[in-house]
C-alpha cells in the first residue's frame, strides 16, 4: 500500500509504503493481516525503513490506533530496521492511524480492531478503587459481626422485683400504711436497684 505525496520541499517524489501480508491461523479459523514494514522513499530511492510490531487485525477488519510512531513516548510500534540505516535520523508519527489492506468494500473501512489494551490506566485505577472499597466493606462487616451487645454490661445487684403470694396472717407484717384515709396505700420496704456500666 503506497501513499504518494509528490514533491514536498527538497523531497522529490515522497512516498510512504506499507508492506502488508495476510496469514491464515487455524486457532482463530480466519485470515489475519499484519503490517510488517514501513518504508520512506524520496528522490527515487528508499531512504528509511521501519519494522512494524503489534500492528495486526483479522482480514475482514481494519486496524486503528491513536498513535503509530517510532517515538518511545508513543510506545514505539515502528522500530528502525538496522543501526546503519538512515531510519534513526527520522521520527515518524501517525495520529489517529487506521489501515485496512484487504476485503475493502465500497471504499469504507470495516469494523476496527483498536490497539488500546484492555488494561488501560483508567481501568487499572478503577480496579484498585474497587478493591479498596471491598476491603473497607469487609472490615465493616467484621466489626458488626464481633460487636458485643450492651446487655452484657448490665449488672443487677438484686433479682427483679416480684410479688410473692402472701398469706392472710402475714399481711399485717408486710403492710405499712402511708396515710390513714379511706384508701390504703403500701410501699415495699426492700427496694431493689440496678447499676449500669457502659
UniProtKB/TrEMBL annotation:
It is a single-pass membrane protein. It is found in: Membrane. The chain crosses the membrane at residues 118-141. Pfam families: Ac45-VOA1_TM, VAS1_LD. InterPro entries: Ac45_acc_su, VAS1/VOA1_TM, VAS1_LD. The keyword Transmembrane applies. Residues 117-154 form the V-type proton ATPase subunit S1/VOA1 transmembrane domain. Keywords: Membrane, Transmembrane, Transmembrane helix. Belongs to the vacuolar ATPase subunit S1 family. This is VAS1L protein. It comes from Ciccaba nigrolineata.
Amino acid at each position: 500500500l503506497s501513499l504518494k505525496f509528490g514533491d514536498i520541499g527538497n523531497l522529490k517524489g515522497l512516498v510512504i509504503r506499507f508492506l502488508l501480508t495476510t496469514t491464515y491461523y487455524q486457532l482463530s479459523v480466519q485470515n489475519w493481516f499484519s503490517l510488517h514494514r514501513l518504508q520512506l522513499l524520496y528522490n527515487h530511492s528508499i531512504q528509511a525503513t521501519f519494522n512494524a510490531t503489534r500492528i495486526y487485525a483479522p482480514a475482514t477488519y481494519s486496524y486503528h490506533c491513536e498513535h503509530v510512531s517510532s517515538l518511545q513516548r508513543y510506545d514505539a510500534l515502528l522500530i528502525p530496521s538496522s543501526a546503519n540505516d538512515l531510519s534513526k535520523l527520522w521520527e515518524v508519527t501517525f495520529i489517529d492511524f487506521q489501515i485496512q489492506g484487504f476485503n475493502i468494500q465500497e471504499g469504507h473501512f470495516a469494523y476496527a480492531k483498536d490497539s488500546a489494551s484492555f488494561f488501560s490506566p483508567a481501568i487499572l485505577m478503577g480496579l484498585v478503587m474497587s478493591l479498596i472499597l471491598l476491603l473497607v466493606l469487609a472490615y465493616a462487616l467484621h466489626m458488626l459481626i464481633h460487636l458485643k451487645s450492651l446487655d452484657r454490661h448490665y449488672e443487677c445487684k438484686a433479682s427483679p422485683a416480684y410479688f410473692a403470694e402472701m398469706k392472710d396472717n402475714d399481711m399485717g407484717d408486710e403492710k405499712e400504711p402511708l396515710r390513714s384515709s379511706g384508701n390504703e396505700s403500701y410501699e415495699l420496704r426492700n427496694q431493689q436497684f440496678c447499676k449500669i456500666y457502659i
